[in-house]
Design goal:
- This protein has 5 helices and no strands.
- It is mainly alpha-helical.
- The longest helix is centred in the C-terminal third of the chain and has 29 residues.
- The chain is elongated.
């Protein structure tokens, strides 16, 4: 916080880390709004409301896409990223999500897990192949809706 005075004898105070957008550990949490927006309280409040509304619209669109065709989770995380430009709670949620995704990716690269996944995939493909072979043996190359009672 600055006193705003250039008078001799006045002491200027260094800005808090919270006001500069950095957390106590210099971790970069906080608003990423332009400085001219941060300097005016009403403008900053309207900026935050706008970011919230846009992020909410994107998240709601992602939720709608979950049961419908579309990249629902990607859109939801995009909305969270929009919120994270202004809100610390969204930044923390995104950090947690990134950490969990990284852990899952590392676990998936583990040789034991990869071997298990490959084995399960091969078993699934064999089962699908056997079922397709039985279908072709019984009905031939005929679409299911064209099959008469046999």
């Amino acid at each position: 916080m600055n006193t705003g005075s250039d008078e001799p004898g006045e002491v200027a105070v260094v800005p808090d880390k919270a006001e500069t957008g950095e957390g106590p550990d210099g971790d970069g949490l906080g608003s990423r709004a332009p400085e001219f927006v941060k300097q005016r309280r009403a403008l900053h409040l309207s900026w935050r409301v706008g970011v919230f509304v846009i992020g909410l619209a994107v998240v709601v669109a992602g939720i709608i896409m979950l049961p419908l065709p579309g990249p629902g989770w990607v859109v939801i995380f995009g909305g969270m990223a929009i919120w994270a430009t202004e809100f610390v709670w969204a930044q923390l949620v995104l950090r947690w999500t990134k950490r969990k995704v990284t852990e899952a990716a590392q676990k998936a690269l583990d040789p034991k897990v990869r071997r298990r996944n490959i084995t399960l995939t091969v078993i699934g493909l064999v089962i699908i192949g056997v079922l397709a072979g039985i279908y072709l043996w019984k009905f031939g190359v005929v679409a299911p809706w064209s099959i008469k009672d046999q």
